[in-house]
What we know:
Order of helices and strands: EHEHEHEEHEEHEHHEEHHHHHE
Shape: globular
Radius of gyration: 19 Å
Number of strands: 11
Largest sheet: 9 strands, mixed
Oligomer: single chain
Amino acid sequence: MNAKVTVGVPIYNGERTLRRCIDSLLAQTYPACVIHIADNGSRDGSRDVASAIIAEHPDVQLTSHPTNLGPAGNFGFLLRQAKTEYFMWLAADDWVAPDYVARMVEVLESRPDVVACAARVEFGRGEHSRFSGGAYPLRHSIKENLAVFLSNPSDNARIYGLYRRAALVEAFPLRHFHAFDWAATAGTLRFGKHEEVAETLTFRDDTPASEYLAAIQKDNPTRIGRMFPLLPMTCDLVRRQKIPLSFPIIAALINLNVDYSLAHAAYRANRLKRPLGFAHKFWKQRIGWRLGTRNRDEAPRN
């Protein structure tokens, strides 16, 4: 099979939903597709489910990491292992419509100026919850697209779109840090535009916003890191990737950093049962719309 698309499926403790995810990929109408599962040291029955899938479908690839590499480590492993022209991740608790890959390839094949394409995303856990605000198209200049994205990355559902692999490899961070997915998706805008198919073809389980904020603690072990959780992401974009800077881009990065510092302060105050009303109000009014998650949020898992 002369494959043009690789789908990387990162999984950590996802035994409940992995088969649904893989079944949606096996049902794709696009014929040339490599499926690679990478288990990130799961402690549940994920490896058993994955092994059963491999026994039924030997073409599906499986890698089991003996220890947890962290989210960016597992995502990056799948990306580096791929050799095809196009690449996408699909989280183990998500699934896609049968024509998803074919529709994304069609856009990338016909639009050399487009580096990534995603479809409309519906969130829910057994029933409809909301539509994602994070897969909107970015069709203008590099600086304009970066300013728009960094002003409103939303839930960044575009991270699970189909990419030109070479561009994604260049943009993907070299180490794990909070919001590494924002750095990766923003970085690909240096190489082209992002397009959206205005049809719901991706379906994702919803996750409480508190889990995303709790990840700040895990991703930033130092006090300064917890005070400024987006500083590593900002440094990656500015210093390593050297994104072009403009006043709107700088302002967007400053706003993001301030917003997240206050959001995390509100989260910690709530956990410690300390009153911090201004920060809680800031979270509801500012961060809620920025992430598209007044009640819910979603971040890359596994």
